[in-house]
Known about the structure:
By secondary structure, this protein is mainly beta. The chain has three domains: about 5-60, SH3 type barrels (Roll), CATH 2.30.30; about 65-125, CATH 2.40.50.140; about 130-185, CATH 2.40.50.140. It has one helix and 15 strands; from the N terminus they run ββββββββαβββββββ. The strands form three sheets. The chain has a five-stranded antiparallel sheet, with no helix packed on it. The protein has a five-stranded antiparallel sheet with strand order 8-7-6-9-10. The protein has a five-stranded antiparallel sheet with strand order 13-12-11-14-15, with no helix packed on it. The longest helix is centred in the middle third of the chain and has 4 residues, at about 95-100.
Amino acid sequence: MASPTDIRKGRVIQYQGTPHLVLDMMHRTQGRQAGFVQTTLRNIHTGSSTTTKFRSTDNIEFCHTETQKLEFSYVDEIGYHFMDPETFDDIVLPLETVDPIKKFLVENNAYDILFVDGKSIEVQLPAAVEMKVTEAPEAIRGDTAGNVQKPVTTESGLIVQVPLFIKQDEIIRVSTDDGSYLSRA
Length: 185
């Protein structure tokens, strides 16, 4: 058993008899009262989210988790397919699990997949991903006053605001936090 202060984003805990993924956590104190940890948890089996408070006297049980680096292969009506490059096993994650981050998935790139008790749960994105620019409008001559940017479309369909010098077929680095342009690759 562990203390609620050990809870971190991305860890999996047992809550009400089922495993829950910690989406967010905040340690709070109120005046003279004892502190508590406020968390946002997602039930791994049902996918529903809940906000829960844990007092400093509560005991927390962490689940056994494992992370594997798998290559994103393709998506179909069944789900998102990831392949283990060593064993060539095909692991499928459901559409509703991956849809919120699909704009950062690029075919043949490796991503960390979180497994809880042998079952794949979610894709853990890196801080930045490299993407190829598929559509980029030409910059207008003389349009250089200040920090001027233009929208480009990447291979995953993500639209990113980039500097005027970025051309079609270039590789750019994009932040997975907010989808902003970081640099050329």
